[in-house]
Amino acid sequence: MAAERLVVIGGDAAGMSAASQARRFRGPDELDIVAFERGHFTSYSACGIPYWVGGDVGQRDDLIARTPEEHRERAIDLRMRTEVTEIDVAGQRVRAVDRDSGEASWTGYDKLVIATGARPVRPELPGMDAAGVHGVQTLGDGQALLDSLDRAPGRRAVVVGAGYIGVEMAEAMLKRGFEVTVLNRGPQPMSTLDPDMGRLVHEAMDGMGITTVSGAEVTGVRTGPDGRVTAVTTDGETYPADVVVLGIGVTPETALAGAAGLPLGSHGGLLTDPSMRVMGHQNIWAGGDCVEVLDLVSGRLRHIALGTHANKHGQVIGANVGGGYGTFPGVVGTAVSKVCDLEIARTGLREKDAEAVGLRFVTATVKSTGRAGYYPGARPMTVKMLAEYRTGRLLGVQIVGREGAAKRVDIAAVALTARMTVDQVTALDLGYAPPFSPVWDPVLVAARKVNAAVREAGSA
Amino acid sequence: MAAERLVVIGGDAAGMSAASQARRFRGPDELDIVAFERGHFTSYSACGIPYWVGGDVGQRDDLIARTPEEHRERAIDLRMRTEVTEIDVAGQRVRAVDRDSGEASWTGYDKLVIATGARPVRPELPGMDAAGVHGVQTLGDGQALLDSLDRAPGRRAVVVGAGYIGVEMAEAMLKRGFEVTVLNRGPQPMSTLDPDMGRLVHEAMDGMGITTVSGAEVTGVRTGPDGRVTAVTTDGETYPADVVVLGIGVTPETALAGAAGLPLGSHGGLLTDPSMRVMGHQNIWAGGDCVEVLDLVSGRLRHIALGTHANKHGQVIGANVGGGYGTFPGVVGTAVSKVCDLEIARTGLREKDAEAVGLRFVTATVKSTGRAGYYPGARPMTVKMLAEYRTGRLLGVQIVGREGAAKRVDIAAVALTARMTVDQVTALDLGYAPPFSPVWDPVLVAARKVNAAVREAGSA
């Protein structure tokens, strides 16, 4: 029997995890694996780019989990700098173009994995392609930005966007000695939090010397005679800039899949079942930043670009392609980040997410510390918790604080997955010792307060 | 209507939380609250004593959450230095003795809360009462030890016991400039872990310059002409000592309750229902270190002396006494600690716990890091996970490592409470960003490995 052929489009986390996992299940005599990557790198941590740009991570290659050579050693026919330009679903083949030679060829498949990732949102405004204006999606972007910093005529950086990438890049620019201004469209930075929690991030960034301008609608970029950026303009102001970093988020890279007639959701991502099989296509799987995922709390589909999901998708796809079994049940919307020593975390639904799905809720916000108050290094932490009206089901948690704030959100992530009520959360047996927590963990304090609010609201 | 009277025996976490919470529900015109405390202090953090002795916490009073005066301001009739010597259950009254005047009197109650705590195990061996030999259960013990350090003729400390208190006191003695030897009866320190994980603690303590002697059965203490300790003897060796710290664990302080005919369990603790009402007694509650608690994983009763449980018990009792409603569903056995920068955590069952209740299991142990491997400060962490054979139910997790190891156990604590399988754990949506976790959190890596072991064992 001739070997089956698996074709993988995209050589980053989801695609190469799928390929590697499929290889573990089935050897080269059983399964032929061809993977196409249009860029120069495979299996790298895009999430690490801000720390490389900021200097915490010394080398670009530190971010690469597995090189093309390492993949090839595992009998994966990896074709770098080769872009798939068409998927012929009926003919079970893909057309790929060698980006150096320009040569195109068709490759047939028995099974196909689409892992084309996401692309940064780049506003269509005057000057956005100017020298000195940088996205930070790929290693190439990171290198271009680092080179640009060396050439920058001054030390003024403007970061457009105040989400995860925006605040992480603000920290990176600060560490590189730049004066940093963050332009933020919304009412507060970190729109992945409720505005009352975003305000805490704003205040902390002020304290770090980062200027955050909220409600700023960018209208364009001004350039000098050499074509390099000199300023960013908004509807109201002009912000001089020697370098501009775009951190406005990403959108699923699904033009190829869409053109092939594969099903896309309302966020532009591919639609899959829990085995990560593309809906209606027995032999096509998709995973990573190009798919939509089920939000287990709201029951809706979302698009979340995050390496940890991409890796899980890859594992599930690889098992299923290789003849094993795996499913990705969904997400609860956990995300953590930091700006300098300020930790930011969220999971589940924000107020507006709950409203959007018609869930009535109560909230409580508490201030506590990450260690016992008397223990050295105890630093403040604010926890906001949402619970469903009447049922008391936990709906979401947001945490902003210093050491120990970010990963505390995992408690809530597990509780959300288990569909616990906040009453159940109050009784959780969490780790306690003075260096690690007050005797009531901040998450428990928040749960007690919101639980009381649930009871009060229910009796009203 | 005359006010009801609530009598509370014990002025620490459980007792005073109960009193305070009951007061929130019912004012002084409705409920008369009398609390007896035989010592000098109320509501203090016994868990903080090692850090006070070690110098991390500057003042004894930093460990006191609420003073007698603060309790009295809340209309609690608190009688300090007054020891309850008898409970007359049929007569609904307690006999208390003023420890200064020696005067005894009876106080009647409508409702009674027993929160008599635990007492340290003090082996009945020659010389254990000598000067320079110290327990660390109470603030008084801590002060006596600190005074003793000043009087110590040399700088050799012997710590008897290598559980939580033992290792924390080893760190404290090290910080005070002592040469520290820990004598440990078991095969490895931290018998709350499996020996393979305890070995990692042993190795780390070696690296810190703490000498740990395992399999050491203490036979007595030698004293000098001044009556002060000079050495600790074991079945094999003699260890010179200028100060000795006993950290051998605690046992429920239930002599009073036992004499009154109240029901005690096999660990010597009071038996209660989930509302913390003493079994068979409508108007008596008990909580804190003097009760046994339900282990939700094994289904057995255990005795666990831990401030966080005591506080929860107090809240529940106070609500029930005050006319509200609360239950304490049980524990999963979570405990965290540290020795210098080594973090130690456990939750659920060890191998021998699972064996003791007839659960067949598989295990997996993985090494990972608390941050992305390329992120500065990424430090090693070992995670061991137990899952039930066939069903794959998570049974327990042990973590030993540096920064970020201890509180990661909370993920497992919540998953145990929700009775998740390790397969479900592999899919958890945990916080990921390079400064906080590798793309696969160490707990997820362990879950994947043990999940594979479950499948393999099931197909064998």
Automatic annotation (TrEMBL), chains A, B:
GO terms for molecular function: oxidoreductase activity. Its cofactor is FAD. Residues 5-298 form the FAD/NAD(P)-binding domain. This is Flavoprotein oxidoreductase. It comes from Streptomyces fulvorobeus. Keywords: FAD, Flavoprotein, Oxidoreductase, Redox-active center. It comes from the Bacteria. PANTHER family: NAD(P)H SULFUR OXIDOREDUCTASE (COA-DEPENDENT) (PTHR43429:SF1), PYRIDINE NUCLEOTIDE-DISULFIDE OXIDOREDUCTASE DOMAIN-CONTAINING (PTHR43429). The keyword Repeat does not apply. Belongs to the class-III pyridine nucleotide-disulfide oxidoreductase family. Residues 337-439 form the Pyridine nucleotide-disulphide oxidoreductase dimerisation domain.
